[in-house]
Amino acid sequence: MATMHLSAPSVGPLEREYLLRAFDSGWIAPVGPDLDAFERELAATTGVREAVAVASGTAALHLALELVGATAGRSVLVQSLTFVATANAVRYTGATPVFVDSHPDTWTMDPELVADYLARHREDPPAAVVPVDIFGQCADYDALREVCGAHGVPIVQDAAEALGAFHRGQPAGAQGELGVLSFNGNKIITTGGGGALLTDDPRRAARARHLATQAREPAPHYEHTEVGYNYRLGNLPAALGRAQLARLPEIVARKRAIRAQYAAFFSQVPGVDLMPEAAYGTGNAWLTVVTIDPVRCGSTAEELRMALATHGIEARAVWKPMHLQPVYAAAPALDRGVAARLFRQGLCLPSGAGLSEADVDYVIEVVAGALSRRARQLADL
Ligand SMILES: *Cc1c(COP(=O)(O)O)cnc(C)c1O
């Protein structure tokens, strides 16, 4: 049976047309007119002055952290509930990640924990604070900017999952000193693999482009005064990204409709709640995520995941928090147990923009069947 994936890319004739046009132009390199245009269009879409397109969201995070001075001996506050890339990028710089729990109302970095930490570390402040706009919901930037601003600590916004979301009417990605997007295959739009760094500071953009091209100095020969990276995005994937970006409003609208369809069903099911949508913003519904209280619902998230898997439907646990990952077991954590509970109770449901209403109905039918079977089992006990 064909598998219904969690977040399959939505690509079609427009993407094909842009890609072939770029191919025929002869610009098959990490430079070219589509790369320049993609950067301009990304900046316009997110409301920043400059976007620097790179090979991955992880590369964009690494560059952002290097730009704000993350280095060995410094700490960086990182949201614990995230994909491992956020933490790994901190480690690439040599800095120590300090993991911060989520607030239960938003699932994003708890500003109170950040305030506590910064007050206790006036002598050795972190190089950056890295909130994550998890599942396409912006972090609480009013509170985070106030706290970080008071201590002069820059915010690096991991908006890898949040392109097309809004914070107080402003597009996601522009809320920190530096913003990061991902165009991986499962993200809201894809270049087949890619990312971008967003900034209002042209000098930082120039510095990021320099570091991303092996820090080559302007000279007729190859001249290098520092260590750089090979992080630039190619012109072909950028062309694909331009087509996807043109379709962003349509993709987000479809994702939000899918979430509304799930929401209508789960509002009738005791013990199952959708991820809350914060009052300060509008999420892009990258994934529809629910939490399952096994006591009130009768089933656990893992039982539902397995029931869906037997029908060829991919569902997945919420990110396992970084402070519970073996690779980061030794890192300090500001923990109130929220992210750990979301990991235990959370389930991400198929949310690809290509899913039809009937596809989502089928997922709902399988969930409803599993829940009523479980209810009958419990009644028989
Ligand atoms: C996907 C993702 C990244 C990494 O992006 P890549 O393009 O896969 O390198 C970073 N942070 C978060 C929160 C992500 O979801």
UniProtKB/TrEMBL annotation:
It comes from Virgisporangium aliadipatigenens. Belongs to the DegT/DnrJ/EryC1 family. It comes from the Bacteria. GO terms for molecular function: pyridoxal phosphate binding; transaminase activity. This is Aminotransferase. Its cofactor is pyridoxal 5'-phosphate. GO terms for biological process: polysaccharide biosynthetic process. The active site is at residue 187. Pfam families: DegT_DnrJ_EryC1 (PF01041). InterPro entries: DegT/StrS_aminotransferase, PyrdxlP-dep_Trfase, PyrdxlP-dep_Trfase_major, PyrdxlP-dep_Trfase_small. The modification N6-(pyridoxal phosphate)lysine is found at residue 187. Keywords: Pyridoxal phosphate.
